[in-house]
Structures are given as C-alpha cells and as structure tokens.
Design brief:
- The structure is a single chain.
- The model has no long low-confidence stretch (mean pLDDT 90).
- The protein contains 20 helices and 22 strands.
- The strands form 4 sheets. Strands 1-6-5-4-7-3-2-8-9 form a 9-stranded mixed beta sheet, with helices on one face. It has a 5-stranded mixed beta sheet with strand order 10-11-14-12-13, sandwiched between helices. Strands 15-17-16-19-18 form a 5-stranded mixed beta sheet.
- It is 38% helix and 18% strand.
- The chain has 4 domains: 210 residues, Heat Shock Protein 90 (2-Layer Sandwich); 146 residues, Ribosomal Protein S5, domain 2, CATH 3.30.230; 93 residues, Rossmann fold, CATH 3.40.50; 123 residues, Four Helix Bundle (Hemerythrin (Met), subunit A) (Up-down Bundle), CATH 1.20.120.790.
- The relative contact order is 0.06.
- It binds adenosine-5'-diphosphate.
Length: 619
C-alpha cells in the first residue's frame, strides 16, 4: 500500500517479543483459536463503542452497522476480520499492539514466569489475544480508524519478529479495525470459507453482534441466561461457558436461576473444572459479567460478587441496572450491592444442595475450591454462617480421606455437648500421635482435624457453629467432664504436688504452670497453649508474615498424667537420684514441646537423649 508519510518503525516491548517468540514457535496444535481471539477482540471493540455512544455525541461515522465481517481470499491466502467498533488511534496502536498492558497476554507472561508447565498448555489456558494471529500468519496488517473525530486512518503492520510499523493509509478508512492475516504455508487451510465458518460455529455462537461471512450470518445471538432452563441443552450451556469464560475445560457446576424479588435477576454461573490458583498462577480475575437486558455493561465488574467468588464464571443480567452506570459508580451502587448479596446467597444455597445430592462430586469441588470458601469465612461476616455449612474435614470419627461437615458433627455430638472440638496439625498421623486427642476420645467426643495452614486463620474467625463454640483440644482452658472414670492408680496428692513444683523449676520460664490433670490417658505429659498464647501454626504464620521480627517467647502450661508409670517412677527417682530426675524432666518437657510443634531448638534434645541411653544401660 502506498502512503502519504514515511512509516514509523518500532520495536516490540520485551514481553511482547517473548510472547511472540512462543506463539510463533510453539507446537500448540489448536491454532484455530486465533479466529476466536480476533473475533472476540472485534466484539469487545463493538461493545465498547456501543457503550461509548451512550455518553458521546460526537463520534466518527455513527451509523456504521455494529457487526463483524470475516472473509478469506483463497488465492492470496489471507483471512480478514473487520469490525466497526471503536478503532484505535496511533497512541493506542503502540499501547495495545506493541506493549503488554492488557489482560490476556499479561496473565500469560506472568504464568510463564511462575509455572513449569509446557508453554503450549498455557497458550490453551489463556489464548494470547491478538498475538495468536502470529500462530498462523507471517504478516499481520491492521487498518484502523478511531471513533474520535480527529482520528487518523492508519495501518499497523508486522511480521511478528522484527518489530512493527505504523503508517498513514492512503484513502479514508472506515471507523473500526480490519485485521488481515497473510497465512503461512502450513496454515493455508484457514483460507477457506468452510473452514472458517466451522471454527466460528464452534467458538463464536454467543458473540452478541452479527458475524457475517459475505452476506451469510454465522452466529445465532442468544442470551441463554434469559431463557427457561428447559429450553437450554447441556451442550449449549457448556458451549456458552467456554465462550464466555474463554475456557477450554468443562464447567464443574452450573447454576441458572431467575428471580423477580427483590430485584429482577437472570444469572448463569459456572464453576470451572480447575482452580488455576493452585497451579501457582496468582489470583484468578473475577469473571462474571454484568448485563442489563442482554446488553453487556461490564465484563469484569469489581464488586459485583465478593472477591472470594472470583473463581466463578458467567453472567448476571438485571433489568434494574441503569445501562450507563459507570465502572466507578458500580461499587457504590446500592443495586449492585443488592445483586451481590442475593446472588451470593443463592450460590451458597446451591452449593449446599449440590453437596447433599452428590457428596462425592462436592468433595472433588471442595478439594480444589475449598480455599475460596475459607477465605470467605475469614473476610465476609455476612455470609460466614452459610459458608461454614459448606466446610468439610476429616475427624476422629471418620476414616482417612472421608470428610464430614459441622452439621454432621453435631448429629453425632453427645447429649449436652456444648462445644465443637478440633485439632490443627500437619496431617492425620501427626494429630493422632500427639497427646491431645486421647482426653476427648476417651470421653467419646469427636475431634475435627484441620490440616491446611490457612485453617488457623479460619478458626480465628469461625468461633462458633449453630450456637456451639469451636474449641481447640490443645488449649489449656479446655473444660472436660471430670466425672469420667480414669484408669490406673494416681500418684497421691502430696507426691504429685512435690513433683509438679520440681518440674516447674526444671522446665524454666517458658512454663506458666505445671498441674496434674485428667485429660491424658496414654501420654505422660502434654504442653498446652493458654488462651493468650500462640500455638505452633500461629507462630509459623507470624514468622512467615514478619520474617525479620523475632517471635514472642513460647508460653505454655504443662499437664502431667499422675496415673502414668513414667510419672510414678519420676516421683521416686526425684528423691533417690535428683540428677537423673532433672535429666528426665527436661527430656519430658522437650518431648511435650515437640508434640506441640513448639520445640524450636533441638540441640539439647539429642545430647540429652544420649545421656539417657547411657543411664538406661547402666548396671
Ligand atoms: P486483550 O484482548 O486480552 O486485552 P489482546 O492482545 O487481544 O488482549 O488485545 C490487546 C488490545 O488491543 C485490546 O485490549 C484492545 O485495546 C486492542 N484491540 C485489539 N483488537 C482490537 C479491535 N478489533 N478494535 C479495537 N481495539 C482492539
């Protein structure tokens, strides 16, 4: 094409080159997704234009049809996708097609840095927007004219390798963008109407603007979220999910509901199969779009749903939302807040129902997405109660791998049991080997096991369920029914007291008090964390949050088991061989700290252990 001024030649930003390099050289086989990516950009541009028209009077060529044209030239081996959307100015061309500031490709680069996955799998996960054109083309031309009255007719051109150039077009270009791909030899199949039509039918059925090949309309515009459930097939739902979430997986759950009260809502929400946050890809971006009577208002509105529901995909449509609501005023809108509350509540109720209908399927969901629910409990008081019904965990009354809920726990609670007991620990084996479980087990009380390191934070916020307090079985203030029969002869009171004060002396300043108690059965001793103290998980968390700060000193209470053989013997040895008694006392304390996860300095432990072995083998 001839031009009026010399082309402006530019280099791509480093990140763009990185993406292009991967896109061009990748072995990713689904190259056809470039059609979807470019059509979706065209649709975005049209959507933005439609929105802009609500507030701008002076736009260039206001009457062009809002549609997308796709054409091929079998001889020249080109595919062209054009729209009359908002177009781009020179600055916007640099910004949008020369640097990475935009969503899709940025997430891609970030994921590339963070993940060890094969690049091609990542391309599938994200699509790489505009740059996917270079999977099939060795030259891409963008003719564009901005909606702005003073816009220029411009041509952007690149081979995807050596940078790009922008020049003025000779004649006038219509408002919008026209993207022409000169196909590489191995991608020539895409220069055929039938092939392109077939791709469009797969990916672009839900684009809300007409897509035309010549005169023929390819897509059927359908706001399936406003249809009756009985009129939508599973395939249509799945296809819509893939289209709207730009996803490649099948949805794990879908919730489709309509309501008129308190506001008119048509919502179609999906839970994806995968939680990409578990792959270390950083926070998911919210993906539920807001519509008003089929017209998109915002595809990623902040505040439409709580942040902990950022894994949801889909659409919320409400006729009550004003069409021209701005992004800024969205969060302040009482209508949006109402939508948020109603839909969130409905979704939690939906999950509860799903969990009851198919516990196994729910368990799979929970394994991947349970963390979001926990996050919700921590940050969202309004929904805490409903969220807590959705928690699942193992307990002392389940098998390994079998999960139960708080409600189920209460059905098994003993008559008059006012508390819900739990223990936190790295895993089932660690919790069961510790000294804390036996007191409750021997009294027939169920103990919930929490393994996740965010559970500690969770438990600081989830203080009760159904009016019953949640209490740690390792806490010093655990009140247990003392009428229970405990087996074994107890050391007499006087000896116990002497032993306790001896131990207090030996244990040193980490210990607030040493007492005999009834909670222990087969362990001689346990370290308990007082209400104002910090357990091991809390200390770990604090250390992780403030790596340079010193943690406060450890503070525990120690309970001894006066029925335990070791304690009996220690009382005797304390009189007969005070040195050995001291050695045993310190070892006892370290063991107790070890079980509590609180032994931070192990040097003495080993040394002392050798000496105890020596003692044991004497004579
Ligand atoms: P994303 O769509 O995820 O933002 P892309 O790489 O697909 O990333 O596109 C980059 C940017 O280029 C878009 O955000 C948009 O601003 C601009 N753009 C792409 N295609 C068009 C188009 N057809 N009309 C107007 N702007 C476009």
């Amino acid at each position: 094409m001839s031009t009026s001024t010399a082309p402006e030649k530019c280099e791509f930003q480093a990140e763009v080159s990185q993406v292009l390099d991967i896109v061009i050289n990748s072995l990713y086989t689904d190259k056809e997704i470039f059609v979807r990516e470019l059509v979706s950009n065209a649709s975005d541009a049209l959507e933005k234009f439609r929105h802009l028209q609500l507030s701008e009077n002076d736009v260039h060529q206001p009457d062009l049809p809002l549609e997308i044209q796709v054409s091929v030239d079998e001889e020249a081996k080109t595919v062209t996708i054009s729209d009359h959307g908002l177009g781009m100015t020179r600055d916007e061309l640099h910004e949008n097609l020369g640097t990475i500031a935009h969503s899709g490709s940025k997430a891609f680069v970030k994921a590339l840095e963070e993940s060890k996955q094969k690049e091609s799998a990542l391309i599938g996960q994200f699509g790489v927007g505009f740059y996917s054109a270079f999977m099939v083309a060795d030259e891409v031309t963008v003719e564009t004219r901005s909606w702005k009255p003073d816009g220029e007719s411009l041509i952007w051109k690149s081979d995807g390798k050596t940078g790009y150039e922008i020049e003025e077009a000779e004649g006038n270009v219509d408002r919008g963008s026209k993207i022409t791909l000169k196909l590489r030899e191995e991608a020539e199949e895409f220069a055929a109407d039938t092939r392109v039509k077939q791709i469009l039918e797969t990916y672009s059925n839900f684009v809300s603007f007409p897509i035309l090949i010549g005169e023929d309309r390819v897509n059927t515009i359908e706001a399936i979220w406003r249809k009756k459930k009985s009129d939508v097939t599973d395939e249509e739902y799945n296809e819509f999910y893939k289209f709207s979430a730009k996803a490649f997986d099948e949805p794990r759950y879908r919730m489709h509901f309509s309501s008129d009260m308190p506001i008119e809502i048509n919502a179609l929400l999906f839970v994806p199969t995968e939680n990409t946050e578990l792959w270390g890809m950083g926070q998911m971006e919210p993906g539920v779009s807001l519509y008003c009577k089929n017209v998109l208002i915002d595809d990623k509105p902040e505040g439409l749903l709580p942040e902990w529901l950022r894994f949801l995909r889909g659409v919320i449509d409400s006729a009550d939302i004003p069409l021209n609501i701005s992004r800024e005023s969205m969060q302040d809108s009482s209508l949006v807040r109402k939508l948020n509350r109603v839909v969130t509540k409905r979704f939690l109720k939906f999950l509860d129902g799903e969990a009851k209908d198919d516990a196994e399927k729910y368990g799979e969901f929970y394994a991947k997405f349970g963390r979001f629910l926990k996050e919700g409990i921590v940050v969202d008081f309004d929904h805490r109660e409903n969220l807590s019904k959705l928690l699942r965990f193992e307990s002392s009354m389940t098998e390994k791998g079998e999960e139960t809920s708080l409600a189920d726990y209460l059905t098994r609670a003993k008559d008059g049991q006012e508390k819900i007991y739990y223990l936190t620990g790295a895993d089932r084996a660690t919790i069961e080997a510790g000294p804390y479980l036996e007191a409750l087990k021997s009294r027939g009380l169920e103990v919930i096991y929490f393994y996740d390191n965010i559970d500690e934070v969770l438990l600081q916020h989830l203080r009760e369920f159904d009016g019953k307090e949640l209490v740690s079985a390792a806490s010093a203030d655990l009140e247990l029914d003392d009428d229970v029969e405990v087996e074994g002869d107890s050391l007499d009171e006087e000896k116990t007291e002497t032993l306790c004060s001896f131990l207090k002396e030996e244990f040193g300043d980490k210990v607030e008090k040493v007492e005999a108690g009834k909670r222990l059965v087969s362990s001689p001793v346990a370290a308990l964390v007082p209400a104002d103290g910090m357990n091991a998980q809390m200390r770990q968390m604090m250390a992780a949050m403030n790596p340079n700060e010193e943690l406060p000193p450890i503070k525990v209470e120690v309970e001894i088991n006066p029925r335990h053989e070791l304690i009996h013997q220690l009382a005797t040895v304390q009189e007969e061989n005070p040195d050995l008694a001291k050695l045993v006392a310190r070892q006892l304390f370290d063991n107790a700290l070890l079980s509590a996860g609180l032994l931070e300095d192990r040097t003495d432990l080993i040394e002392r252990n050798f000496r105890l072995m020596e003692e044991a083998m004497k004579k």
